[in-house]
Amino acid sequence: MKYSKRWHNWRIKLIGVGFILAFGLIGYRALSLQVLDHELFEKRAQRQYQRIVQLPRQRGTIYDRNGQELALSTAVDSVYIEPHRVEDAPGTAKALARVLSLSQRRLLAKLSKKRRFLWVKRQVSPRESETLRALKLKGVGFIKEHHRYYPNSQLGAQVIGFTGLDPKGLEGLELQYDSLILGERGFLVIEKDGKGKSLGFGDHDASVRGGSPGHSLWLTLDKNLQYIAEKELAAGVRKAQAKAGTVVVLDPATGKVLAMASQPDYNPNAFRRSRPSQWRNRAVCDAFEPGSTMKPFLVAAALSEGLVSPQQTIDCENGVYRVGGRTVHDHHRYKRLSVADIIKVSSNIGSAKIGKKLGRDRYYRYLRDFGFGVRSGIDFPGESKGLLRRPEQWFEADLANISFGQGIAVTALQLARATAAIANGGLLMEADLVEQVIDSQGAIVEKRKPRTVHRVLPEAVAHQVRDMMVRAVSEDGTGPLAQVPGFTVAGKTGTAQKVDPVTGGYSADKRVSSFVGFLPAEAPRLVILVVVDEPEGQTYGGLVAAPVFARIAEQSLRYLQVSPTEPVRQLALPEIVFDDPVPAALQHMAGARRDGVSPTMPDCVGMSSRQVLQTMERVGLNIKLKGSGRVVEQHPAAHRAIQYGSEVWVRLAPPA
Question: Which of the two residues, 93 and 557, has the higher pLDDT score?
Fold first, then answer.
């Protein structure tokens, strides 16, 4: 009896301990679920009653150096469906197909799927969105996404590039700076019930969470200079019936790229309608044999080494010279020419003899110092380093050929940078396309200042070569058509045979025509290179590329308000072909200008930036553009007389 009572007490205690342990475990588990692991289980719960659809990230804006928008992201509607909420599948498919220009059969197949969420069409046009919203289709929803838009169409297209639907950068600076421009990703959140069915959003837009724009880029490009370069290059390529063309405009003091144009071009807003060859930035990615534009660098090297002097004469063999088993010809039968005259008349024989004095090792070293045969390191994808073989691979004939620009391949950017080194007194500068990077809050993340790579030439030698290049643009030089009224131009023409890919030798009829120069020669503001690929008929650089240089230079200096350094001869204004409809007021103003009457300010309100720029060129005014879109304000007022050269501005704004 006593034993039974003792066992009973122990059993009660054991049961009590068991209850305590059980309640302790339950309490710990409750603490774990509600406190210790709260965030983990909250996320699991959200995954059970929410569905997350990732949205494309918003890209930062790309501006020119004056803050004009070149690429931006705009909010547009994307259309989706929730098939389980659609009441009339055939009718809904028919309506969607009609408005969005899609296949009705494929839409009907989508509606029959057991999916809870399906995209119908991403980034639809405002007209499509407005029409579809008015129909109020059950189960059809809208969500705001960011679409990449290029407000200036073709302007700077090969430099800026474009994006895909993702929106990942696919070409140009959009690709180069993709990780910087892309912002934080946003999400579309869809609520689900206990059975996993979507609750839907009825007639309201979907719920978007998170997301922020990426960094913005401020380029070194000037929108107005870019427009001038592209317009004149296109006209020059058309006139020469050429295959392609390239223009590079640099600031020689800083090395900044102010304009970089390629033809043929394309519209990045509709890049799929163009060929990949049109997307390529030829100034950076294509190499060509430069021809006689290399002669100033040869002479600069020989002058630096003290091997020649500007007035030293060289026997040019009456136009025929045998070297390394090959015959070199000049276009005229020159006898003795000074080194300065060799540049002026572009003698191949004189250049070959200077190259022989210099020697292959020293010449190669100078070419590398000028930036040939190496990538510049510009912030752009796919840069070519050109072709410059090691000097031990040069034979005697190779040295002669490279002395007048054959047997070497350069990019337009390399040639423009090297010319800038002569223009600025002998310094090779870094070339950049992006000047600064700004975050979404407006703070400067990175700002790039001009950087010197190294000194190539003594300043005195650079000035000697500059003076020789000025003579090359004189009336009896090879480039008189590059002259700009009111300014001294230093430059050099080039005409090079192209290699025939079939025979492997030089083509009998295919040429690359070029002109590179800077002005004002005594205090250079611009270096401009024009390259025209495979012109028909006239092929000499002085006839094909030099006039394009002159037109770009004249308009660019006028825009930059650079005062003439010489008396200006009055020239007839060229006829301009307008791309956009132009108000009659512009025609009236241009006519008054040619009659010698002071021009009046036209009524620019409502014009596009392209029309304003065409007006600037047409009448010789410096019109400053502020903003983008259409003109909403101007100074001076319409039809007021204005003083030639005085500041005139218009303010543009996007349509309300």
Answer: 557
Angstrom distance (rounded) from CA 382 to CA 245: 18
What is the pLDDT, as a whole number, of residue 173? 96
Residues 617 and 534 in one domain: no
Query: Rg of the chain over CA atoms, in angstroms?
Result: 34
Note whether residue 588 is domain-resident: yes
Same domain, 617 and 530: no
* 3-state class (DSSP) for residue 59: strand
* Backbone angles phi and psi of 288, in degrees to 5: -145, 160
The pTM (predicted TM-score) of the whole model is: 0.75
Q: Using H for helix, E for strand and C for coil, what is the string for 482-509?
A: HCECCECCEEEEEEEEEECCCCCCEEEE
Torsion over CA: 298, 300, 302, 305 (sign): negative
Counted domains in the chain: 3
Pick from 653, 583, 593: nearest CA to 625: 653
Lowest mean pLDDT among 189-198, 208-217, 275-284: 189-198
Place of tokens 């021009």: 599
Amino acid identity at 86? V
pLDDT of 622 reads: 63
Pairing type for strands 207-212 and 184-191 reads: antiparallel
Give every CB contact of residue 105 below 8 A, 6+ residues apart in sequence. none
CB 577 within 8 A of CB 498: no
Do residues 277 and 362 both lie within one domain? yes
Top-ranked range on mean pLDDT: pick from 174-183, 189-198, 593-602: 174-183
577 found inside a domain: no
Question: Looking at residues 241-263, what average pLDDT do you find?
Answer: 96
Domain of 649, in residue numbers: 584-653
Query: Using an 8 Å Cβ cutoff, are 557 and 573 in contact?
Result: no
d(CA 517, CA 293): 10
Task: Please tell me whether residues 541 and 592 are part of one structural domain.
Answer: no
pLDDT the model gives residue 35:
67
Q: DSSP of 26-40, one letter per residue?
A: HHHHHHIIIIITHHH
Confidence grade of residue 16 (pLDDT, cut at 50, 70, 90) = confident
131-145, 175-189, 562-576, range with the lowest pLDDT: 562-576
Residues 6 or more apart whose CB falls under 8 angstroms from that of 187 comprise 52, 53, 54, 55, 208, 209, 210, 211
Residues 616, 555, single domain; the answer is: no
Q: Tell me if 580 sits within 8 A of 626, measured CB to CB.
A: no
Residues near 619 by beta carbon (within 8 Å), at least 6 away in sequence: 586, 589, 590, 593, 599
Tokens at 642, concatenated: 């204005």
The CATH number that applies at residue 212 is 3.90.1310.10
- How confident is the model at residue 373, as a pLDDT? 95
- What secondary structure letter does DSSP report for 198? B
Instruction: Enumerate the active-site residues.
Output: 292
126 and 234 in a single domain? The answer is no
3-state secondary structure string across 548-594? HHHHHHHHHHHHCCCCCCCCCCCCCCCCCCCCCCCCHHHHHHHHHHH
Two tokens, residue 65? 């150096």
Tokens of 177: 């700076």
Q: Specify the pLDDT at position 54.
A: 64
Nearest residue to 301 (alpha-carbon basis) of 384, 399, 393, 407: 399
